[in-house]
Amino acid sequence: MDDEIDLLRPHLLFLQQRGYQVDAVSNGDDALALLRGYAYDLILLDEQMPGRRGLEVLEMIRRDDPHARVVMVTKSEEDRTMTEAIGRQVEDYLVKPTSPRQVLSVVTRILEGSSIQQQRAAQDFAKRWPALTRMREQAAGHADFARIYQELVEWHLRLEGAGETGLLGTVEALHDDLRHDFGRWVTRKYPSWVWGEENPPEMSVDIVERRLLPLLGKEPVFFVVLDCMRLDQWRAIAPLLSDFFDVDEGYHYSILPTATPYARNAIFAGRFPDEIAREYPDLWDASGDEGSMNAFEDDLLRDQLRRLTGREVIVHYEKIFTDRKSDQVRARIRSAARIRGAVIALVFNFVDLMTHGRSESPILMEVAKDEAALRQLTRSWFERSTAFAVLKEAAAQGFRVVLTTDHGSIHCRRPATVYARRGASANLRYKSGNNLRAQDRGSAFSTTRAADLRVPPGPLGTTHLVALDDYFFVYPTKLREYQRRYRNSFLHGGISPEEMIVPVAVLRPRLR
Q1: ∠ CA 138-141-144 to the nearest 5 degrees?
Q2: What is the pTM of this model?
Q3: SS3 annotation, 373-409
Q4: Is it true that 5-98 and 204-410+499-509 share their CATH fold?
Q5: What confidence score (pLDDT) does residue 36 get?
């Protein structure tokens, strides 16, 4: 709709020649009459017309159809006009004079952009697939496995975002093959990694020294751990942070077992679990109560920083389970941020609580029924969370942040029967116990040497099992109960790229 419609005939012909049906009117009243009779995919609306102005017509269009797609076209370059149009959620904004090619570009993007993106994503993946297959077959080191895992995550997100669901099965099949290869490779390499042999990857015990230590100085530094966050969950929330920070993303390998008492303590202590148990016998609770095994993370971090710097570093530590007391938490953090050279260490447990709670709650199981739903739920939480609020405030104050996680989780689909005497640990992805064995040897990494995992030694005859692929452990006496309860759960503790290859990012505030 444009009062100079006769001057726009070349634009109309250009669109019609490319298959678009175009109706043209010269005033708002005629346009509103047409809109009441027909459903249009797109409206190009001139702002400066006699009678009803474009913004007035836009308001009336929105009353009848809140979801109508509108492009505002105007001679005015005033910021106020543009701001008003954008505030009313127009799809785009064009300033006259416009060429037929400019108009076609906008129309094509809005009406066909998703299908073009879908086709392009499919073509790009088809072209890349042979190379991905070779990469998987030739992977020989920790960087190789991390590289292909990260790329598969990217392809999964890109194809899913473009609506190209037909190829997701191919990505998942390649991911299954990678997971299988990864598990067998880790069982061979891990015992040498933990003793510093064979060029080990960056692991949980290295995070503070390699990532946090270089940032220490006069200004406070934030150290944020989002418990149990997979790489794809990180990629879901990272765009929210990029508005406030320059994000330097990397990865590290979580230690085994990929569970909070082991991996998170290793991050804060810079030590493997056997060292922690030996050096801090009063802190490591060997009773099997995992909830009490992470009660001294602040002490472990202070000791590690003292060991690395040779001086006392002030640490303010918070563990946040809920957003109900967000104001009090943020007030304490703001107060701590006034301390020169302080490290503000924050652990947010929501993702871990959600992952565990999903197995116990039919409603949560339905809401987060697969990886895509889990990502969306994670992003929804993060957008409104204390964690995001704290990070935005840190960016506004110019503070740098190290953000990471202790481990990820995996969507478990296959039960693996294990036999054990009474007293074996209860976790579904790793177990320790006397005369412990898996019925299917291919379902788990098994060792009687605690030194292979760098965990505290158990009683004589103790065996350690760590699940591979997407298996979860069940006892023969509770086979059906465990299958019904835990199949398709997101679990952690085992060996898989999803649990072990996890993000670590350094966030530097954007200059404003």
Answers
A1: 60
A2: 0.87
A3: HHHHHHHHHHHCCHHHHHHHHHHHHCCEEEEECCCCC
A4: no
A5: 87
Peptide bond into 97 cis (omega under 30): yes
Query: Which CATH number is correct for 204-410+499-509, 2.60.40.3880, 3.40.120.10, 3.40.720.10, 1.10.600.10?
Result: 3.40.720.10
Edge-to-edge, what's the strand order for the sheet holding 70-74? Answer: 43-46, 70-74, 92-95
Question: Which of the four pLDDT bands, split at 50, 70 and 90, describes residue 8?
Answer: confident
Amino acid found at 134: R
Q: pLDDT tens for residues 480-501? A: 777 777 888 899 999 999 999 9
User: Which CATH number applies to 5-98: 3.40.50.720, 1.10.3720.10, 3.40.50.2300, 3.90.800.10?
Assistant: 3.40.50.2300
Q: How deeply is 129 buried, as exposed, middle or buried, from its count of CB atoms within 10 A (0-12, 13-18, 19+)?
A: middle
Evaluate whether 155 touches 467 at the Cβ level (below 8 Å): no
Residue 447 CA to residue 453 CA, distance in Å, equals 9
List, in sequence order, every residue forming a beta bridge with 464; answer none if it has no partner.
432, 447
Domain ranges across the chain: 5-98, 114-193, 204-410+499-509, 414-487
Read off the tokens for 446. 């098994």
Condensed to tens digits (0 to 9), the pLDDT of residues 26-39 reads 888 888 888 888 88
User: 268 near 300, Cβ under 8 Å?
Assistant: yes
The two beta strands, 315-320 and 343-348, are parallel
For the chain, the helix, strand and coil percentages under 3-state DSSP, each to the nearest 5:
50, 20, 30
Residue 197's identity, in one-letter code, is E
Q: What is the pLDDT of residues 209-262, one digit of tens each?
A: 999 999 999 999 999 999 999 999 999 999 999 999 999 999 999 999 999 999
Sequence-ordered list of residues with C-beta below 8 angstroms from that of 170, at least 6 positions apart, any chain: 125, 129
Instruction: Tell me the two tokens of residue 17.
Output: 């020649």
Q: Which of 147-156, 357-366, 419-428, 456-465 has the lowest mean pLDDT?
A: 357-366
